[in-house]
Amino acid sequence: MTPPVVSIVAKSGTGKTTLLEKLIAEMKSRGYRVGAIKHDAHSFSIDHEGKDSWRLTQAGADTMLITSPQKIAMVKQNPEAQEPPLTQTIETYFGDVDIILTEGFKRSAMPKIEVHRRERSPSLLCRGEEHDSTLFAVASDEPLELDVPVYDINDAQGLCDLIVSRFLS
After folding, report:
1. CA 20 to 30 Å from 60, out of 33, 46, 86, 110?
2. For the whole prediction, is pTM greater than 0.85?
3. Dist CA 32 CA 101 (whole Å)
4. Are the C-beta atoms of residues 77 and 62 closer than 8 Å to each other?
5. How far is CA 1 from CA 5, 19, 31, in A?
6. Which one, of 75, 72, 82, lies nearest residue 60 by Cα?
7. Which pLDDT band, with edges at 50, 70 and 90, does 14 fall under?
């Protein structure tokens, strides 16, 4: 895939978003253009009931954009409530970035970093019952003996070094 995609995966409440915030900030400080995709297995809304954008979507708009000098937001209805393939979403919306960091997509074939917290779970998603060959690193709050590098859960700089050397060099 171009641009390269790295997915941050973990069980709920482990710290995926926190790690992603740190990775995005570190990548930006190094001059990279970063895209982010958050997977939500449930229905979500960025519109607020009663606002003009919500009213336009409720009226039946298939695509609704809000634009300002600072940013653009889009609400696009998926036909028949079918989520498009991630590759299609990337091709359509992420042509202007150097790398995409995703949160979730634990069942995808994308390269993954798993976040692990001892108190959350004794086992890993990608090295538990199933062996996910796309796992290339773990960010953990405890030392682990694995077949992939293990970084401290707060070592965004080290993880960023790994991502850059593996996907952007």
Report:
1. 86
2. yes
3. 12
4. yes
5. 7, 23, 21
6. 75
7. very high
Q: List the domains of the chain with CATH numbers.
A: 5-44+80-168 (3.40.50.300)
Question: What letter does residue 87 receive in the DSSP assignment?
Answer: H
For the segment 77-124, what is each residue's pLDDT rounded down to a tens digit? 888 878 888 889 999 999 999 999 999 889 899 999 999 999 999 899
User: Looking at per-residue confidence, does 33 or 76 come out higher?
Assistant: 33
Assign 49 a pLDDT band (cuts: 50, 70, 90): confident
Tokens 């036909």 correspond to what residue? 79
Q: Is 19 left (phi over 0), alpha (psi -120 to 50) or beta?
A: alpha
Rounded CA separation 72/110 (Å): 27
The structure tokens listed for 47 are: 């519109």
Nearest to 4 by CA among 138, 117, 98: 98
Cis peptide before 149 (omega within 30 of 0): no
Task: Write down the mean pLDDT value for the chain.
Answer: 92
Query: Angle CA(28)–CA(88)–CA(26) in degrees, nearest 5?
Result: 10
